[in-house]
């Protein structure tokens, strides 16, 4: 990856899962046509209830941050990128439809859906954002989690 001096810093320190440092994680979509490999540390799971996540994933989406320079696509023949807003794109499998990745155009990290990992027992949930934008029937089962909108400094 090329260095961009305007890029935002790496994974936020308070989000890093220390026990994942230098560990290698693999994962991929449901059909296996899109596969990735990432070297830790990775971030804690952040659950997002925003409109864009709901419309692309079918319900709230969740991601963990990994450094782009420690992330590799092992298989990407089926991978499609979709600009879901002016500031970010999403990577999904064009064969099985799995919603794997979210990436701010200016970020040096990529958010990976935790369900795509082959092994994720060391992961932990940090909290949730954009809960107020969810329809009144939800977010489901997440009412006890901390709200991190201010911490995460979510773009609106
Ligand atoms: Zn797939
Ligand atoms: Zn979202």
Outline:
With 156 residues, the chain is mainly beta.
Looking at this protein, list some descriptive labels:
binds zinc ion; mainly beta; 7-stranded mixed beta sheet; 3-stranded antiparallel beta sheet; 156 residues
**Which cofactors or ions or other ligands sit in this model?**
zinc ion
Strand percentage = 25-35%
Number of distinct beta strands: 10
Helix content: under 10%
CATH topology: Metal Binding Protein, Guanine Nucleotide Exchange Factor, Chain A
Give Rg in angstroms. Answer: 15 Å
Provide the CATH architecture: Beta Complex
Describe this protein's structure.
Helix content is 7%, strand content 33%. It is mainly β and 156 residues long. It has a single domain (16-140), classed as Metal Binding Protein, Guanine Nucleotide Exchange Factor, Chain A (Beta Complex). A 7-stranded mixed sheet has the order 6-7-8-9-4-3-10. A 3-stranded antiparallel sheet has the order 1-2-5, with no helix packed on it. The longest helix is centred in the middle third of the chain and has 7 residues, at 51-57. The radius of gyration is 15 Å and the shape is globular. One zinc ion binds at residues 48, 50, 52-53, 61, 130.
List the helices and strands and how they pair.
Blueprint: E1 24-28, E2 35-39, E3 45-48, H1 51-57, E4 61-67, E5 71-75, E6 79-83, E7 88-93, E8 99-104, E9 109-112, E10 125-129, H2 149-152
Parallel strand pairs: 3-10
Antiparallel strand pairs: 1-2, 2-5, 3-4, 4-9, 6-7, 7-8, 8-9
């Amino acid at each position: 990856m090329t260095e961009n001096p305007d890029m935002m810093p790496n994974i936020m320190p308070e989000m890093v899962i220390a026990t994942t440092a230098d560990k290698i994680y693999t994962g991929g979509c449901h059909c296996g046509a899109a596969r990735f490999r990432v070297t830790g540390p990775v971030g804690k799971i952040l659950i997002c209830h925003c409109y864009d996540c709901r419309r692309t994933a079918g319900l709230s989406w969740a991601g963990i941050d990994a450094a782009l320079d420690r992330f590799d696509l092992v298989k990407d023949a089926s991978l499609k990128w979709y600009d879901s807003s002016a500031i970010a794109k999403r990577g999904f499998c064009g064969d099985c439809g799995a919603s794997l990745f979210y990436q701010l155009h200016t970020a040096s990290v990529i958010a990976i859906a935790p369900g795509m990992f082959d092994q994720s027992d060391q992961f932990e949930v940090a909290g949730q954002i954009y809960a107020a934008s969810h329809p009144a029937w939800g977010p489901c089962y997440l009412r006890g989690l901390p709200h991190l909108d201010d911490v995460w400094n979510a773009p609106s």
